[in-house]
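User: Predict the structure for this protein chain, please.
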Amino acid sequence: MTNYLFLAPDEFLLGQRLRQLKQALGNAETASLNIAELDGARADAAEILYHAGAMPFLADRRLIIVRGYLTHLESRLGTAKAPNNAGQDEARQILAGLAGPSVSNDLVFIEEKLDRRRAVWRGLKDLAGLEQLSKDGCLAIEQLNTPDARALPGWLAQTAKQDGVAIESRAVQLLATYVGADLRRLTLELDKLRAYASGRTITAADVQRLVSDTSEALIWDLTDAIGQRDGRKAMRALYELRRSDANPFYLLTMITRQYRIMLKVKDESARAPGNEYDIAGRVGENPFPVKKAMAQSRNYAITQLEGILDRLLSSDFAMKTGADPNTELDILVAELTQPR
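Assistant: Here is the predicted structure, written as structure tokens:
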């Protein structure tokens, strides 16, 4: 039987890993009777070890899932003043239990973050901590972090290979760029592309045809919030773009593009009104961004849009001549969301 520690888990990767452990219990009907989930902020070592050593029902083993217990214990130890306190007794009990034979089932700890300088990780005076337990083979530590922007294409390519999906490397890069680090949506889009390709290799053209660019949608969210003078919403959209590791120069380019479309649409609508398809044909843009621009441009006069484009140009100059790009974008958004 195995003790697991899942660190900083991505929600999708964690779901996959827990599903694997649950399936390993065997028959689905009896498996549900052999799964216990505990709230780590309320559970103590005695309760956890009791479940970890309990006899399974019509199965070889049980699965015990504990969320946040070690983080909570770490916090108790960090705030304790006396050396021999209840927190240390608790730490000794759980660490000794993990090293001993009392655990006869699969025990999983799920933690967002643990401080590797603390006693829970490094160990107490005469007792191994999580690090040593891992080296001794008593604890399997797995990092289930969301892949960053550089690792994401590799994760996607590996997932496609495991699922028997043939996909061009350029299509992998494009799909990762369009969707970002939303692993659940990436797998759904991959399934959609596989069905569309119907046995042939998925191409970049397939991705362009079937998958919407999330980053562009988020930039429209940002410009929409700026148009509404909603600073909080605008900053939230900006940080969401950064979470996908979007390059600040790319963000500025895309924001500038949206405002240029707004200006063209505003000017053309004043000349000859029409729907998004009419105006899209006249300004040389696709109907979707034109429809968004038609709605957003109502928040501005043409002179205001021209002024914003001038401000964007000055930000571009500042970023290219030494200003911190992220700070410059923060200042820009803050200025543009100020009340009129």
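The first helix runs from residue 11 to 23.
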